[in-house]
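Exercise: predict the fold of this chain.
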Amino acid sequence: MVIGSIGAVAGYSTYAIGLVPWDLDLGSMIIALNGSIFAFGILYFGLLDVSAIARDRLFESMQEGGKKP
């Protein structure tokens, strides 16, 4: 995510400074590309899947069953 953000800043910087010889905003294109890459990573690889972590924390915090004193 950090690399994608740096790429967008670099694209906007080249456009703002005037290093791009044609009138094309690279920052917007890079952000759109990063959005598709992030969506693929989230859906295909489960990058934001926290259910396993939540399940482990739940079972660690549970007390054993039985009568309460």
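Check your answer against the key: The mean pLDDT is 76.
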